[in-house]
């Protein structure tokens, strides 16, 4: 037994074993760190978050065409955005109010016409989907100076609609913690091209007062989780 | 384990004598200081309540643990699945998606209408609330109406047409049924019988009348197992015609109840509870007054528990006490011998009544025989109560005896001439009087059709069973006990291929129509006035001339009536009645049955939760602890402590109750304050229909309920066995340590000593705390609960369940102390065992200023909001349960298992979309209905105004018939809640811990008669 131990010790020189230990340490610690880092990057990449990725829809509806091209107001279709938690998806009737006159025979609009005739509603796919423990209210935001494009991005430039931001809680609290950075005057809420003025923070502070925003309550958990 | 624990009654009585009636106690176990009680007190999650349902090996546990570890990290990786958004084709105007709408309708309770407002979300009814414009509701409801929402979504509901055991279609049914009816029509209809429950619907009545014209030989029978036969027979006895009494508790200073449970059993119960409680609100000790309530009752009910003076006596004896009282009032001679104390009690009550002429009321319970009712009315009349504390109107339903009606039917069935029997609702195979042997006789009918919400015992005995539409999915109309009529409008299209009673009658008469057309057609033809003609099948005659009202006027009347929920002017007018002064003497002179004082009475009462059994399949109602006994998922043979001592009975010991050759077995439950020599059995349990929630819960009392003794009998034989059957009572669950959770005084004491609730020596200083000081510049939400008004009826508990998606956990989980109710009602007793005072205390999250739960949460899942709410954030909770351990009020509930019904496509429709559905492993508790706060806030913010007082109404507050709960902004000196909190009676529970609860209580006051108090 004793001899065998001596033999083994002679096989490896001391400096060599240190190198192996260091390599082992790098592998054991660095490996997982690297893997986690990689996972983190993948986790937050558009490949997973679908940020900027068009979502397939039954009809290739173009916000760019309708908003930027035709200049239709958001509220023409999303009628309840100022009064309800839900902005509203237009009933097929709204589509047909124009498309019974224009593009009457367009192939891409066939599902709309079929739905109108058959009475079977279209099944759109939700682009921005919050978890079920989050309660979001559109009216509370657009009536208090949070613009459409702050959350939905440049919808007016989207041929196919996609998620503009990846909505994690830290993203929400960016604004809930310091709304002055994002608030707009009432007439700018629907403006897709709005960019914050140089004095945004001061203007935002004034708007908080004008809108009577209770900033302490904004960071209460129950504001969004009930 | 199964050994029966018997109480040492003598030492308990001895101990209670020592407390002078001041000490509160919850149960005999607490008084006996049994091991079981100490276990519940010391351990929030008792030793027997381990997490696994069955035993789990160590090896199995490690496997689960390893698998959970491996999967734990993966849950965050998946994206949510894509979700469709389905817009309308054509959106109705003024109905934005994402916001609830409200519709007025009515729901039946024992056939009588209660006006409700139903909250609809994206076309799904999600919450039922009372209609303030409806006289039977006044904006509140009882527990049953709240829970009827689950009745709609009940997955066990009857969904298909059945012929025997095979599934059929409505067409199959019509193909077989319509030719049979055609043959009957040609033969004069002599073989047709129709059996309904109580019918108050003017349209259904007209339909049945026209059916009877088509089939002149047909007969219409009515049977309701818990009915108002005695009430109508009683008024007939005194006034010569059946009348519906309408009590006015708001005008009554002194009330005597004769086995009456008017606060929950009467068709006007919700209103009565409100009026009664209004007379017990004491805002100012100097100027406020209180009514005084004497109750002679057998079983301790919600109503009896509110008595200032209770006299528990067995049901057959109550007639004797009624006569004794009547003799005093009429000033006639004796012949009735009562024990000295009892005679004094009656004497005092009689003098109190006579001192309040015109403001006195005597009310007899539905279970008492007609002469007692007649006597009660005659006494009230003699005291000048008619026109003041009681008025009378024509009954809105047929006042003929239910029992006679079904007896005739049973006789006809035996005769063999009945070819067709249509059972329009009800479950006679289960609940008809035992001596009628309805199931056997039903088998003789070649064509029997059963229309019902449930595939119950009767369904399987009929040739055809056809599924009924729920009142929330059908058109109908209903009348309240005072005549007020409501149009019942559907909130949702029928979930299954079901039909309403109106539609079924249409099928029978060969003119199938949609329910809407039937109801609207009726009201168009007969108009708002003609439809309300007195209900008399014979005078129905030919159809009345069409109302000449213009179509436009009708359309606007129809729209307005639907919107309001009440048909204007439909209340029955008062009928002028007189009772001559000699009436009492005449009634007393009638032959009254001799009472065997030593016999044990057996009383049959509707269950406080599931009534006669028609709500037995409703899990909410099965699980909610019953008001007095706190039993859940059970019924029991309720007995008093005297009987238990004499027969040496223990809780859960099985009794054999034999009557006329039939025997049932029932586990005993000792109820302090229950009459001696009486056993109370609650109906509706022991169901045998398979695969239903109710199957196998409790025992069935109907087998010993005979047609001549529907409410009680003195002839039964009660024997004890040595067997035991487990009962689940939550009376020890969530037991609070410490003392004086309920503080009480008499009105006189309060006047003398307005600060009686204060305990300055116990109150810690507010600065003796390590908690940070909170400031609330705008809102500070708070709640005040008036223990003086609370009747302990469970309406708030059911409302909370419906509003907050609180799950049902089932009997086995309740036994382990895992019921999930955010709001519970603690029941305390004080005073002697055989006749204690009862106290109800709703207990919910106190939203402590310095909350013990907040500081122990390792993940910040329960935190303090800027407005003082104690927030519970489910998505952060990891289930350590530290918060619950640290909560002195024991109001936190933990999801030990996956209790929610998420994933069940029908049950999911019921969820309130404003409240998260909780998953397994998270803690939950009362949130002060934060979803309602936030909705009100957003509405107010959008309108740029502050939230007004009264704008936020919590679900419990909304439902409370007694208006005992008030919620609001305690920062606002003008708010209602602040004014209540400023009252001298206001106190907090366990404030000695310096938790500074936001929910505070107004102390209970009693208004005893000094003459009885000293005795």
In short:
The complex is a heterodimer of chains A (226) and B (1015). Chain A has 226 residues and is mainly alpha-helical.
Describe it:
The complex is a heterodimer of chains A (226) and B (1015). Chain A has 226 residues and is an all-alpha fold. Chain A has twelve helices and one strand. Helix content of chain A is 47%, strand content 1%. The longest helix of chain A has 31 residues, at 14-44. With 1015 residues, chain B is of the alpha/beta class. Chain B folds into four domains: 161-227 and 399-564, Rossmann fold, CATH 3.40.50; 229-393, Dimethylsulfoxide Reductase, domain 2, CATH 3.40.228; 601-724, Barwin-like endoglucanases (Beta Barrel), CATH 2.40.40; 748-1010, 2-Layer Sandwich (Alpha-Beta Plaits), CATH 3.30.70.20. In chain B, the strands form eleven sheets. A seven-stranded mixed sheet of chain B has the order 7-6-18-17-16-8-9, with helices on both faces. Chain B has a seven-stranded mixed sheet with strand order 26-21-25-22-24-23-27. In chain B, a hairpin with a 5-residue loop joins strand 19 and strand 20 (485-488). In chain B, helix 10 runs parallel beside helix 12 (370-382). Classes of the chains: A mainly alpha (226), B alpha/beta (1015). Chains A and B meet through strand 1 and helix 8 of A and strand 2 and helix 28 of B. Strand 1 (124-125) of chain A pairs antiparallel with strand 2 of chain B, so a sheet runs across the interface.
């Amino acid at each position: 037994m004793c001899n065998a131990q001596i033999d083994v010790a002679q096989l490896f020189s001391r400096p060599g074993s240190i190198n192996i230990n260091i390599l082992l340490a790098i592998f054991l610690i660095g490996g997982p760190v690297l893997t986690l880092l990689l996972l983190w990057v993948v986790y937050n990449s558009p490949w997973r978050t679908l940020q900027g990725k068009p979502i397939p829809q039954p009809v290739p509806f173009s916000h760019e065409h309708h908003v930027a091209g035709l200049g239709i107001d958001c509220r023409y279709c999303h009628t309840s955005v100022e009064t309800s938690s839900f902005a509203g998806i237009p009933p097929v009737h709204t589509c047909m109010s124009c498309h019974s006159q224009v593009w009457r025979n367009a192939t891409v609009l066939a599902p709309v016409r079929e739905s109108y005739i058959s009475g079977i509603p279209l099944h759109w796919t939700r682009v921005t989907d919050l978890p079920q423990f989050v309660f979001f209210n559109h009216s509370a935001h657009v009536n208090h100076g949070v613009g459409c494009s702050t959350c939905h991005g440049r919808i007016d430039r989207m041929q196919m609609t996609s998620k503009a931001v990846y909505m994690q809680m830290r993203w929400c609290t960016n604004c809930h913690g310091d709304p002055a950075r994002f608030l707009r005057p009432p007439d700018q809420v629907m403006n897709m091209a709005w960019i914050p003025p140089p004095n945004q923070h001061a203007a935002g502070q004034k708007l908080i007062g004008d809108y009577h925003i209770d900033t302490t309550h904004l960071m209460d958990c129950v504001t969004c989780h009930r | 384990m199964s050994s029966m624990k018997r109480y040492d009654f003598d030492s308990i009585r001895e101990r209670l004598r020592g407390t002078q009636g001041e000490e509160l106690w919850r149960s005999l176990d607490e008084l006996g200081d049994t091991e079981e009680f100490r276990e519940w007190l010391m351990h929030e999650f008792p030793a027997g309540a381990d997490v696994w349902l069955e035993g789990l090996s160590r090896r199995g546990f490690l496997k689960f643990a390893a698998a959970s570890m491996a999967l734990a990290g993966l849950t965050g990786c998946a994206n949510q699945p894509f979700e469709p958004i389905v817009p309308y084709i054509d959106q109705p105007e003024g109905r934005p998606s994402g916001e609830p709408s409200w519709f007025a309708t009515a729901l039946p309770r024992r056939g009588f209408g209660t006006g409700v407002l139903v909250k609809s979300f994206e076309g799904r009814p999600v919450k039922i609330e009372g209609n303030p414009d409806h006289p039977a509701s006044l904006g509140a409801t009882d527990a049953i109406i709240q829970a009827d929402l689950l009745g709609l979504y009940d997955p066990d509901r009857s969904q298909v047409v059945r012929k025997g055991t095979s599934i059929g279609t409505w067409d199959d049914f019509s193909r077989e049924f319509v030719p049979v009816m055609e043959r009957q029509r040609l033969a004069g209809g002599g073989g047709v019988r129709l059996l309904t429950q109580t019918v108050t619907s003017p349209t259904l009545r007209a339909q049945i009348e026209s059916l009877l014209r088509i089939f002149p030989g047909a007969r219409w029978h009515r049977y309701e197992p818990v009915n108002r036969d005695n009430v109508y027979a009683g008024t007939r006895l005194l006034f010569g015609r059946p009348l519906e009494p309408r009590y006015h508790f708001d005008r009554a200073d002194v009330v005597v109840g004769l086995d009456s449970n008017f606060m929950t059993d009467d068709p006007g119960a919700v209103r009565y509870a409100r009026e009664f409680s209004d007379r017990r609100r004491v805002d100012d000790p100097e100027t406020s007054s209180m009514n005084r309530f004497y109750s002679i009752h057998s079983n301790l009910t919600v109503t009896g528990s509110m008595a200032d003076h209770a006299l528990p006596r067995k049901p057959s004896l109550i007639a004797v006490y009624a006569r004794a009282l009547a003799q005093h009032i009429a000033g006639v001679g004796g012949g009735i011998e009562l024990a000295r104390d009892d005679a004094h009690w009656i004497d005092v009550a009689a003098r109190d009544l006579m001192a309040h002429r015109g403001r006195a009321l005597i009310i007899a319970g539905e279970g008492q025989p007609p002469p007692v009712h007649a006597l009660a009315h005659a006494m009230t009349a003699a005291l000048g109560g008619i026109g003041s504390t009681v008025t009378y109107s024509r009954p809105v339903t047929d006042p003929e005896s239910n029992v006679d009606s079904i007896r005739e039917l049973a006789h006809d069935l035996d005769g063999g001439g009945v070819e067709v029997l249509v059972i329009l609702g009800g479950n006679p195979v289960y609940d008809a009087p035992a001596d009628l042997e309805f199931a056997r006789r039903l088998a003789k009918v070649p064509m029997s059709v059963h229309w019902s919400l449930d595939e119950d015992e009767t369904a399987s005995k009929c040739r055809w069973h056809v599924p009924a539409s729920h009142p929330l999915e059908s058109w109908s109309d209903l009348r309240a006990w005072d005549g007020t009529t409501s149009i019942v409008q559907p909130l949702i299209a029928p979930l299954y291929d079901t039909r309403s009673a109106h539609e079924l009658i249409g099928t029978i008469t060969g003119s199938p129509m949609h329910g809407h057309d039937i109801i609207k057609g009726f009201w168009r033809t007969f108009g708002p006035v003609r439809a309300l003609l007195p209900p008399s099948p014979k005078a129905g005659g030919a159809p009345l001339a069409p109302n000449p009202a213009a179509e436009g006027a009708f359309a606007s009347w129809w729209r307005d009536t639907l919107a309001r929920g009440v048909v204007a002017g439909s209340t029955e007018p008062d009928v002028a009645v007189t009772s001559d002064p000699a009436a009492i003497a005449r009634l007393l002179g009638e032959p009254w049955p001799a009472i065997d004082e030593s016999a044990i009475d057996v009383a049959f009462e509707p269950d406080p939760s599931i009534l006669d059994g028609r709500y037995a399949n409703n899990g909410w109602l099965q699980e909610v602890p019953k008001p007095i006994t706190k039993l859940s998922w059970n019924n029991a043979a309720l007995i008093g402590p005297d009987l238990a001592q004499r027969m040496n009975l223990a809780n859960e010991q099985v009794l054999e109750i034999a009557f006329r050759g039939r025997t049932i077995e029932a586990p005993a439950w000792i109820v302090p304050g229950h009459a001696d020599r009486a056993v109370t059995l609650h109906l509706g349990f022991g169901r045998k229909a398979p695969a239903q929630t109710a199957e196998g819960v409790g025992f069935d009392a109907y087998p010993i309920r005979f047609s001549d003794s529907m409410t009680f009998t003195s002839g039964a034989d009660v024997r004890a066995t040595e067997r035991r059957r487990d009962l689940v009572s939550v009376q020890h669950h969530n037991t609070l340590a410490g003392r004086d959770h309920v503080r009480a005084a008499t009105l006189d004491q309060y006047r003398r000593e307005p600060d009686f609730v204060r305990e300055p020596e116990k109150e810690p200083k507010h600065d003796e705390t390590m908690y940070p000081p909170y400031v609330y510049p705008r809102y500070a939400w708070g709640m005040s609960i008036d223990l003086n008004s609370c009747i302990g009826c469970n309406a708030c508990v059911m409302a909370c369940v419906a509003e907050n998606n609180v799950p049902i956990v089932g009997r086995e989980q309740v036994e382990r102390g895992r019921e999930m109710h955010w709001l519970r009602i603690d029941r305390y007793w004080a005073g002697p065992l055989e006749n204690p005072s009862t106290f109800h205390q709703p207990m919910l999250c106190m939203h402590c200023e310095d909350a013990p739960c907040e500081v122990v949460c390792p993940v910040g899942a329960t935190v303090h909001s800027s407005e003082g709410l104690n927030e519970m954030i489910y998505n952060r909770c990891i289930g350590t349960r530290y918060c619950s351990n640290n909560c002195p009020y024991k109001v936190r509930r933990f999801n030990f298992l996956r209790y929610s019904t998420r994933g069940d496509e029908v049950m999911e429709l019921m969820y309130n979309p404003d409240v998260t559905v909780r998953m397994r492993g998270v803690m939950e508790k009362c949130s002060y209905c934060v979803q309602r706060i936030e909705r009100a806030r957003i509405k107010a913010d959008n309108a740029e105004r502050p939230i007004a007082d009264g704008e936020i109404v919590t679900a419990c507050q909304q439902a409370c018939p007694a208006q005992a709960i008030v919620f609001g902004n305690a920062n606002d000196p003008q708010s209602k809640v602040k004014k209540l909190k400023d009252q001298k009676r206001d106190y907090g529970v366990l404030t000695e811990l310096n938790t500074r609860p936001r929910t505070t209580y107004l102390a209970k006051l009693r208004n005893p008669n000094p003459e009885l108090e000293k005795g």
